[in-house]
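The records we work with from here on pair a chain with its fold. These numbers are not coordinates but entries in a learned vocabulary of local backbone shapes. To see the layout at work, look at the sequence and tokens printed below.
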Amino acid sequence: HGFPSEPLRPTQGHAFAMALAPRFGAEFARLVRERDEGGLYRLLRNVERGQAAPGEGRGAAPGRDAATASDAALAALERARQPRASGGERLEALLAALRAWCTQYLDEDDADWMLPALLQLAAAPRRLAAALDAGEGTDARKQRTVEAYREQFQRLHRDRDRREGALAISCELLRLYCRLGQPSQCSFVLAVVSQHGPDLDSLPKALSLPLCFLRGKHCVLDGKVADAEELLGWALARCPPKAVGNRRKILTYLVPCRLRMGRYPSLDCLRRHGLESYVGIAASVAAGDCKRFDQELEKHEDEFMNSGTYLVVEKLKLLAQRNLCRKVYEGVAGDCQVAGKAQHAHKQDLSWYERAFEWQDDCGADETFCVLAHLIFIGAIRGYL
């Protein structure tokens, strides 16, 4: 697909179509007639950013040969840019443009050229709805947009040759569900999407990366750490190095997953991506410092709660406890070596562990026994009591 892979900048609250250049209609019609997928993508992206339309002033007037659905989409976009239009009217116009574009996308024999524009037309209502709701303090616009997205998703998913379009709509649905605090609704969408197992490598990067990230994020919320690590690792490996914001979003969920698997990020990586909240967490887990871990978790609790990673990070305490046990074991085994009792190094008095856990986690003898029994049960350490 002939469109760039760099991430899109979010809108600044004003309507997507309010910045349309005067010759936008002519340029849009010309690109549709020529089926210029890259040109359509750049046109819609630049207009959303408030920049002039590419080739402004050289486009011809819309011709008679333009498709009916394309004319409807253009008419809806023109309504959305009316200065006197209210926020609700602009949102409805953008949704109408999306419906019209999806109609032509379904009717076209070769619709690949329409996918880049579909990505932009699908994202615009979500961004506008979020901006309007932020100003009004409600979720009404986002709820309305969810309904429209579900309708188009069901239409596109029925046609096996239009699955890429369905995936584009599904990404916007997943984003809105997360914004609405309804991650449980994502399960239905992901179950439908996963039925035919889309090959991520065969999809355009502008579609495969968001899809992979959103699926990985949902796995984190569901506690499926191994699946999340695989999906988010795939997304990070293919995310452009210059897309610092997108890489930070991926790492926000990938770092705790890899910590759970015993893979520690470098200090430079965390600071470079603005993830200082994980610096103390990673250091305390690696050192088996349960006391510092509790302090860091409490300090960054709000941040972890807002991102949805709190439960994953909280379970890292098991890893900190495991590392604490390892350090105690190595210390006691070293003393046995010095005393010439290496053959008894594996038989250790529980009092050493009781003192360590009382110092680090305010645990009594019975609590320490329970912690050790649990760590043995889950396979974090090997031994018997």
User: Anything to note?
Assistant: DSSP finds 19 helices and no strands in the chain. The first helix runs from residue 24 to 34. Residues 1-22, 50-67 have pLDDT under 50 and may be disordered.
